[in-house]
Amino acid sequence: MGKPNSKKAKKKRTFKQFLKSKDINVSAKTYFVDAMGGMAQGLFASLLVGTILSTLAKYIGMIDSPVFTSIAHFIGQAGSLASAITGAAIGVGVAAALKAPMLVMACAAAVGYFANGYPGSAGQCGFYFLEKPYTAGPLGVFIAVIFAVEFGKMVSKETKVDILVTPLVTLGVGYLIAYLTCPPIAIAMNWLGEFINSATQLHPFAMGIVISVVVGIILTLPISSAAICASIGIAGIAGGAALAGCCAQMVGFAVASYRENKWGGIVSQGLGTSMLQMPNIVTHPQIWIPATLAAAITGPLATMVFKLECNGVSAGMGTCGLVGPIGCFSAMTESGTLTPMAWVGMAVICVIAPAVLSLVFSEIMRKAGWIKEGYMKLPN
Q1: pTM for this one?
Q2: Which of 2, 112, 263, 362 could in theory staple to 87 by disulfide, Cβ–Cβ 3.0 to 4.6 A?
Q3: Are 233 and 312 in contact (CB under 8 A)?
Q4: Does the bond joining 325 to the residue before it have cis omega, within 30 degrees of 0?
Q5: What is the pLDDT of residues 212-243, one digit of tens each?
Q6: Alpha-carbon distance 192 to 276, whole Å?
């Protein structure tokens, strides 16, 4: 009875060693932290920058001059192309995060491009009938590319005809997963986005709090709030609430931790990411309270008082590189709601209110002894 068990154990160890030799680590951190980080990088390098360039081109083009018209055309073209290769950029970002070989990474770009636009049309698609031209977007890319890359890594350099086998396996697995998963993902994400956007219109106060707090927390966690907002297609005042929550976390931590981190902390957190505080949050979770309370207040202010709007990936970026405010400006310009009140709202919601509220809450907690000196100190 002992021999069969020992043989099974040996086989199990051998397979684990094989996975390790291929840099395949099946874990929540690998896929929900590392891979999602790569996904966020891909989104930023394509869709996000493309949106910023397209917006910039639009306003440069308003200047009545042949020179500025040519410049606007060039910038707008660059922005459109950057947005068009979003799926490929996410594919490369995820593949890089998973330490894929070069050939597998190149195939991941093709898989990502395919999955991002699939199914893309109404009618029969696999096992599903689509009433509208849905696409799975970033989430569909994320899932298809993970499977494609991991299977591609398994066969990479295992045969003498690697140049044929690796692309065939990587592309075949990626396309198959996209074919099976993208239609239901597209339907589910579209439904979820419509539900959130509609619910926020009907209940702006309650949904303003929920969206602001939840998306803000996701932003600080080591997962991509931008990718999630893009996947569900968050828009309108729901996107404004998401923007408020993200800004509350970033600006809130930057200001609340000023005495520990000075101006370096203001820049790295306020224009970078509040994710830098995660090691401190794990040790002292109470330091998350000031920024989260600020988000619970600024969320309904954004939806009910200032009626700020923001769409997609920009809503999940906060003040990172000022992408969130720029996205808000762009969305409200397109909808024709960019009033002087909206300008005031962007300043209040994105910077002033989270800074003041987080500072007040953190000082109260410091005086009560709940937050002590050094709790929010960033590593050098």
Answers
A1: 0.74
A2: 112
A3: yes
A4: no
A5: 999 999 888 877 788 788 878 899 999 999 99
A6: 30
